[in-house]
Amino acid sequence: MHARVTQFSELLADLAVKDIKVWVEGDRLRCSAPAGAMTTELRDQLQGRKGEIIAFLNMATAAATQQPAIIPLQSRGTRTPIYAVPGHVGAPFSFSDLSKHLGGDQPFYALQPPGFDGQSTPMDRVEDIAEYFARQIIQYQPVGPYIIAGYCSGGPTAFELAKILAKRGADVPCVALFGPLHPSTHQEFLRLLYFTAWGTIRSVRRSVAKLPTFGARLRYFGSRLRERALMPLVRKEPVTTDPVLASRALLKSTAMTAFRRYTPTPYAGRLCIFLPNKAWLRSGAAPHRWRLVAPDAEFYFGPDDCDEVSMLEEPDAPAVAELYRRATQKLGD
């Protein structure tokens, strides 16, 4: 099935580049194209494979309803597909830059959690979210292998998802966690306090380093101090009435509840942990604690100036993509 999906995804992608639109009306395939865009080759493909294309489009329409968790960022490619869990805000397109820099031969699917669409109800247990993703993946691609990835607080869900798939006999050659937070980061108050302070200090240092003069740095510090001093005096904003913002806020709080409740258990598969920089080991995120449940976990470090907040985005995405390639080369993938 996966090869067939990839084949027709490539054809539709070629049509989309030329602004050629195809759709199904009943049992007929409809098409509209700008002048000169429809080549003889494309016309022959549409005519010769009309039945298959109609079936594929109907399947894709059904999949959009039946598999709302699967968001294709890159459908082409022959390498082992990646299924990636986003952080606690649940934004699947946070993986867009990373997917682009992994190249056109790497299928990449982001996983959209329940509640992100504003229609379904968020789940407050990592185990339940992982089970939901496992069902969606198996429906979409019944046979592995699968590489499971997770970012930030989505790391525990990715870890649990890989365990579920492996227990059901699926081939999971690698679990890739990008800047993962261990649940203990938010379970221990002093650790959370240290993690928050560490992140603030790193952010201030980066901002100061970009300022050209001593005077500019003094003004920056002054503005930060004024913000801190005025913070208790600022009246809290009223609760939003925007339904989209309200649903996202509910998803965020529910996801963090699930994250805090989760306790990882041993996993025998391959675990690769990609940290933005070596300093992240001292951040309070407790990445070393993943070795308590996966003793052979491998660590890969980005450059010193890699920003942990946006490590999957530009300009850091290329460096992180290179780390991933280095790790998967060991698999012969």
TrEMBL record:
Taxonomically, the superkingdom here is: Bacteria
Pfam families for this protein: Thioesterase, TubC_N
Domain called Thioesterase TesA-like: residue spans: 83-281
What the entry lists under InterPro entries is as follows:
AB_hydrolase_fold (IPR029058), TesA-like (IPR020802), Thioesterase (IPR001031), TubC_N (IPR041464), TubC_N_sf (IPR044894)
**What SUPFAM superfamilies does the record tag this protein with?**
alpha/beta-Hydrolases (SSF53474)
**SMART domains, from UniProt?**
PKS_TE (SM00824)
- Which protein is depicted? Thioesterase
